[in-house]
Protein: TetR family transcriptional regulator
Amino acid sequence: MPDREAAQDQALGAAEELFYSRGIQAVGMDAVRNASGLSLKRLYQLFPSKEALVLQFLNRRDRQWRQALAHYVDSHTTPDEQVIAVFEWLHTWFSEPDYRGCAFINSFGELGGISPEVAAQARRHKQAFRDYLVALVTATGRPATLGDQLVLLAEGAITTAAITGSPQPATQARDAARLLMLAYSRHNRAHSDVSQ
Amino acid sequence: MPDREAAQDQALGAAEELFYSRGIQAVGMDAVRNASGLSLKRLYQLFPSKEALVLQFLNRRDRQWRQALAHYVDSHTTPDEQVIAVFEWLHTWFSEPDYRGCAFINSFGELGGISPEVAAQARRHKQAFRDYLVALVTATGRPATLGDQLVLLAEGAITTAAITGSPQPATQARDAARLLMLAYSRHNRAHSDVSQ
DNA sequence: CGCAGGAGAGAACGCTCGTTCTCACCTTGC
DNA sequence: GCAAGGTGAGAACGAGCGTTCTCTCCTGCG
Structure:
């Protein structure tokens, strides 16, 4: 049984590339077999079913995505810069040549209606991102409300960049984020009243 | 040949409900047959293939969605109110019991990687929404830049509401939109400088 | 009244998918 | 050296898909 962990990683790597670029249902286990170099038998002793492979793919993707984001944000020092860094990182992500949106939004759209596990995984991922961004925002002394608004800008940029094929939404979202941060800055806070 | 148009509408109505709630690939032509009450033979003489049915479904959905939005917006008078009305309408949409996000984002995630036609249809729909919102924004005397930012808020609200299952993102997006409109109002315009 | 033609219901076909099985082969411990 | 068990390659299987075909029935017109 040579290196179960390495084989799993190889399978998940191949599955990620295929699932992300073509969608999940359009990719058969034969394609994963060919791309990973593993035999079907080995694949099925590493993952009991395709659904298990899909869930582990989402799990791995969640870990890697959040880690890459946090790594970039950590390279910035002030809290305000760290919030803006999120949108800068989005821009580099959108610029990847085979960028095709958020794997969790895509999976939710494709399977969320028929697979509660996939829907739950998407929910967890988005919740984790929201918690992370809200923490960055509250570290600047601003309210969580702003964090939720910035989440919407980021999510909107993710799907708009995917469909238009341009990284520009990241810049637009960053500019809007700057304006909202200004609106919520200590100096302006007393004057802000957006209630009807 | 009794009423080809009515039969098409019946088929498209059934297809819409199934495709939207369960995804496209998960719905077979048999399911469309059962839901529409049409025979398979009739279905195939109305639409030459499943792909044609899918594209017409997206076409119809685009028309109906934009018409419903425009109808709600038109019931408001001032340009500023009309912009905000977009987010109010989103809230009522998100509150529908079987809301499951934007059919075009979902279709793009599921089939955009393997069907250029589906990807193009999603692009067209989002472009039309963007043009509409930008027109509403410029009618208030504010720049198109703001329109693009509000598009991101709306798109983010659409997916966040779908995944979390709550209509609350519409309210958060509306509040953020109000703040951005304030930031871009004539009074503040000279002082806004968000460049790095 | 008879018959041609189209419609409905669903069986059938070819294909692909997820999953399992076969079988020859290779390793490995005694 | 050899039995035993695990492996790889791919065939096989059952189910489900999109699509087409069959067959029966109904309809409407001469």
